[in-house]
Design a protein that fits this description.
By secondary structure, the protein is mainly alpha-helical. The protein has a domain at 53-122: Arc Repressor Mutant, subunit A (Orthogonal Bundle). The protein is 73% helix and 6% strand. A hairpin with a 7-residue loop joins strand 1 (99-103) and strand 2. Helix 4 crosses helix 5. The radius of gyration is 20 Å and the shape is globular.
Length: 173
């Protein structure tokens, strides 16, 4: 069993670099960061080829679809990204007729963004493409493994967010 696991780890290391196994078991957070970067890169390449949009634009498009008419700050919060990144993506998507801005009825100064018909169509095409890609990435995981990963990731997210909240409440600046 150990030798099979060792061979598997060596194969993984050959694919993603020596950092994956050289750090040891205590570096799971770093491995998650690496995996996230690899997934972001693959996603960016795929959506650029399929829809001619950037990763930031895809995030805005996907969150605008999920949230419905919303403010840029809501998208930034939901996607855990900087508001300026969202604003640039909104501007670009609006220029191409994928998103539109309308005045926020609850605020005189604010705007809500929502998908146009072209944006809805693009989202549908890309979402299906992303679904197939995710299925392929997870094809060798059974339902129990997927559930275990989902629960584990949620626990880590809660811990990170709790720590972030705790540290920001201690920071006097």
């Amino acid at each position: 069993m150990k030798s099979a696991e060792g061979r598997q780890q060596k194969a993984i290391a050959a694919e993603v670099g020596k950092n994956w196994i050289s750090l040891g078991d205590a570096h799971l957070p770093y491995r998650l960061l690496l995996l996230g970067k690899v997934m972001d890169r693959a996603t960016a390449n795929q959506i650029r080829a399929a829809g001619n949009i950037s990763l930031a634009e895809w995030r805005v498009l996907a969150h605008a679809h999920m949230l419905g008419p919303c403010r840029a700050s809501e998208i930034a919060s939901a996607a855990f990204v900087d508001r300026s990144e969202v604003s640039r993506a909104i501007f670009s998507l609006e220029e191409r007729g994928i998103l539109m801005r309308v005045p926020d009825p609850k605020s005189r100064r604010g705007n809500l963004v929502s998908l146009t018909a072209d944006g809805q169509a693009l989202h549908g095409e890309l979402r299906e493409s992303r679904r197939r890609c995710f299925e392929q990435w997870m094809s060798n995981l059974d339902a129990d493994e997927r559930q275990t990963i989902e629960h584990g990731l949620l626990k880590i997210l809660r811990n990170v967010m709790a720590e972030e909240t705790d540290s920001s409440s201690r920071d006097p600046s």
